[in-house]
Amino acid sequence: MKRALSILIACLMGGAVLAAELGDDGLHKTPWMRDTFKDLREDLEEANSENKRLVLFIEQQGCIYCKKMHEEVFPQPDLAAFIEENFFVVQLDLHGSTTATDFDGQEDEQRALMRKWGILFTPTLVFLPQEVPEAATAIDAAVAVMPGAFSKGTTLDLFTWVEEKRYELDNGEDFQRYHARRIQERNDVSSD
């Protein structure tokens, strides 16, 4: 019901959700991003209490691909509603000097954590499971990582794949096969 209402409101506003604005830190901000203390253990606990999945959005100032995602992909009403309904989104800065605390308890500047995790591209989305082992880092615990900017279809498919926990299924349908099937299904519907 909540998702349907979000989509209806977006459609009444002209068919698209408003594009994100730049925050004081130079990063794009959307209404469904959470402003937290960046303690990932607390963020996961809060996400779980809301029955949502934790996803980390890693971005940087001046990133043309981040801008593209925030202006062209994330404003799509069905995608924005799906993210807001199912995900607890925490934004991290690839070059940020403010601190964050990893699941293993290490507190450091965000840029140091990004180096530790081997993050090279922005945007990068890191999808977390509902339970993370105590000594694990975010990148080690991730169920999926999406480095780069993708179309709405690919982005929605990955969010859906994670939300449905398809990474746990032993049916031979990894994300690429799932995505190919979803593309075919959308093509079949549009050709009817």
UniProtKB/TrEMBL annotation:
Gene3D superfamilies tied to this protein: Glutaredoxin
Keywords tagged on the record: Signal
CDD domains, per the entry: SoxW (cd02951)
Signal peptide: 1-19
Pfam families linked to this entry: Thioredoxin_2
Domain spans labelled Thioredoxin-like fold: 48-133
Superkingdom field: Bacteria
The protein, known as: Thioredoxin
Organism, scientific name: Ruegeria profundi
